[in-house]
Amino acid sequence: MMPELKITQLRHFVWVAELKGFHVAAERAHRTQPAISLSIKDLENKLGEDVFEKRNTKSAKAELTPFGELFLPKAKELIAHHDRITQDMMLMADHKTGHIRLASVPSIASQVLPELLLEFVADAPDLNVSFFDDNSDAVLNMIENQQVDFGIASLFHKDEHPDKLFHPIWEDQIGVVCPNDHPLAKQKGIHWKTLLEHRFISNGTSRLLEDSEASPLLGRSQFYISNMISLIAMLEAGVGITTLPRYAFPKESKSLCFIPLDTPHVVRRIGLVQLNNKSLSPAANALADFILAKAKR
Length: 297
What we know:
- The protein is 39% helix and 21% strand.
- By secondary structure, it is an alpha/beta fold.
- The chain has 2 domains: 7-93, Winged helix-like DNA-binding domain superfamily/Winged helix DNA-binding domain (Arc Repressor Mutant, subunit A), CATH 1.10.10; 101-270, D-Maltodextrin-Binding Protein, domain 2, CATH 3.40.190.290.
- Strands 1, 2, 3, 4, 5, 8, 9 and 10 form an 8-stranded mixed beta sheet that branches. Strands 6-7 form a two-stranded parallel sheet.
- This is LysR substrate-binding domain-containing protein.
């Protein structure tokens, strides 16, 4: 059976060898000289060979045996390897290093997360983040397939996802988006039946209307566009109107407007989503806690 070498004993051996004495090594280790001698003796018993020559007087310098000379670089290598692993694990535990994989719906990805991520990685230059943005269904699929640690999305029907934990954070109201020169643009609030008179473009967030009285709109949509860039281009071109959550409305657009949908009043809830039977890595867990803490403030 192979002996188990203790890192502490290896450090004592290296210190005695480098400092040429048991007394100075004991001072370095903050131990008594007899304790260091016992530590070295136990190490020699495990190795089956002496590492230091026998001393005639207490004042004699500690000298390595030929076996000790061969063992010294190996001991240093073991200590260095141990310290590297320990440091890596401590950095991971303190989320200073590692790799986080995160997915989010585009609205939160573009309007909320940049500032949060900038603050989170400020003191962690060795932390890597892979970031994906897509609609809620795609984000949930990435979570299920364990392509990401956790996601930021909506659970349209929570009872359909018993394998997931959902921590709601943000809420935004559904509204109608149309060009500034559209007949609906001057209204302060809109009843869903008013939209029946206009060409409706459905999108990934239109599912939020499924369980409301406005659900007939979905069956009357002439276009379905999943990509936000393409959707905005179609709206700006006057192809039709759509509904979007407030966060998803492109604030930088000068040609589109957002009118709250008064009837029905539909609210989207967005939050952190993760598998309920899988623990997060220390770095991912730290980011999730950071986002939740910021949201509470």
